[in-house]
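Morning. Coffee machine broken again, so started the prediction first thing and wrote up yesterday's gels while waiting. Chain of 154 residues, entered below exactly as on the submission form.
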Amino acid sequence: MATNIDFPKMLPTPLRNRYGLKSGPTFARTTMASGRAKQRPVNKVVPTMVPVTFLLTQEQAQIFEGWFNYEINYGTAWFNCQLDSPMGLRPYECRFTDMYEGPKLRGLRHWEYTAQLEIFERPIITEDWYTNGLQFVQYASIFDLAINQEWPSA
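Came back before lunch.
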């Protein structure tokens, strides 16, 4: 699945307050009569839920509500949005799971919106990177410094 609809670039990313990811179940668990349990994988690709809060200026709130109604069909369409995860701050394909709450007035002229987004696919490292590139992932911050600060420019 891919979408060409983007969250408006002039709007900020979600606040860190109450932000977190919750993935859907990847396995089923059955408790046996003996008290032991069996577990088995059932889903490899599961959605991830993300509670988000946006603090917007009056103008940004107008843009957000217009985009919500007219670009993503009253909140029903998938869109790309910059979200943070252990994979980094990058665009994820997501949609609203319900109508957002708000706007709630904060301060003199800021408006707070809260909602839950569903990320289409759980943000995890690919199997190829896990199998063949763990040393690059483990030392990514060192590589970043070496490439961007220590190596002479070409």
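Helices lie at 58-71, 127-132, 134-138, 140-150. Going to sketch it on the whiteboard this afternoon.
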